[in-house]
Structure to design on (329 residues):
């Protein structure tokens, strides 16, 4: 449906692509050559920051819109609304531009100004809400849900929409398995909506049951405690964006997760600097969280295959943040 009839590129190494959306996914999987040099097993990073919109969320934006179009819920010209930390909004803005939709993004004020500016530049309407908990009517997800029903707009609903988990199972997880011949020691990822860890986790558990699926969680988030006990503890403040939560989202499937590793802001940001300086990987804060946790897992030396993690987004959206400026990169 997204491919014109005249496009017959077959297996050419350098084909003409139907749209920018063809460039989403199939990201490189690389070993950490410097940071991971002394480890018993390699740490491999999937470079999701190299997607066209600069984040892993391009995958779900494309998948959620395609799924809604197939189900007859969305037709070009309509308005899409989403509650977003920014990256899903940027992914949706690309899809909206290519497919002809209007986009409204609801973001909590904690999220970086850079993301707001990028969304406005892409033509989205941005609504900023207070950093309110899920129990509050002002919480960004509640505001998006309310506006969707009042205006009859399509809510992308990344926190609950199963198309999010499905695309990570079918594509992100399948790409990792194919690259490694089905042999993975562990997969480590932080949770924003849970789509990445639940979908990749499902794909890996099905093909390689010994693979350990490990949640990386910012200190202050309740998710590590929830994975371990099934209960919610008190939450606290932290700076890393897009990951961790004060409540588990519906797309976080506890059954596929084996354990959790807690990572401080300091550790995450120090790792971002190392990724930039030692590996040339221009990534954001949650990549630091993921890699810090993945290194700890790889250091244990008990795994039989590599530790895989994702670099969810690019550094360009954090340049105005004090933590990024303090890194001096
Ligand atoms: N890192 C960043 C920067 C994100 O914005 C997100 C998504 N909110 C994630 C990681 C986590 O991805 P997922 O939603 O698939 O759990």
């Amino acid at each position: 449906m997204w491919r014109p009839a005249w496009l017959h590129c077959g297996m050419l190494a350098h084909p003409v692509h139907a749209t920018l959306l063809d460039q989403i996914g199939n990201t490189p999987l690389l070993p950490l050559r410097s940071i991971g040099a002394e480890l018993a097993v390699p740490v491999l990073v999937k470079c999701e920051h190299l997607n066209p919109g600069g984040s892993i969320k391009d995958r779900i934006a494309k998948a959620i819109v395609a799924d809604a179009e197939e189900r007859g819920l969305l037709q070009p010209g309509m308005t899409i609304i989403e509650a977003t930390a920014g990256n899903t909004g940027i992914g949706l803005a690309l899809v909206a531009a290519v497919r002809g939709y209007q986009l409204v993004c609801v973001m909590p004020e904690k999220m970086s100004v850079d993301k707001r500016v990028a969304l406005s530049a892409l033509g989205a309407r941005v609504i900023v809400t207070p950093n309110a908990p899920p129990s509050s009517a002002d919480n960004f997800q509640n505001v998006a849900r309310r506006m969707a029903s009042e205006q009859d707009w399509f809510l992308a609903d990344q926190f609950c929409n199963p198309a999010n988990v499905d695309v990570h199972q079918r594509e992100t997880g399948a790409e990792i398995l194919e690259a490694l011949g089905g042999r993975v020691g562990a997969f480590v990822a932080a949770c924003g909506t849970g789509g990445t860890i639940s979908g990749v986790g499902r794909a890996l558990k099905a093909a390689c049951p010994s693979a350990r699926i490990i949640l990386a969680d910012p200190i202050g988030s309740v998710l590590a405690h929830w994975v371990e006990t099934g209960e919610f503890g008190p939450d606290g403040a932290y700076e890393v964006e897009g990951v961790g939560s004060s409540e588990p989202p519906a797309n976080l499937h506890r059954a596929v997760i084996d354990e959790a590793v807690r990572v401080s802001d300091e550790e995450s940001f120090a790792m971002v600097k190392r990724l930039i300086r030692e590996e040339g990987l221009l990534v954001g804060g949650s990549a630091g969280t993921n890699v810090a946790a993945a290194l700890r897992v790889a250091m244990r030396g008990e795994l039989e295959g590599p530790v895989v993690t994702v670099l969810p987004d690019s550094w360009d959206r954090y340049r105005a943040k004090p933590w990024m400026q303090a890194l001096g990169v």
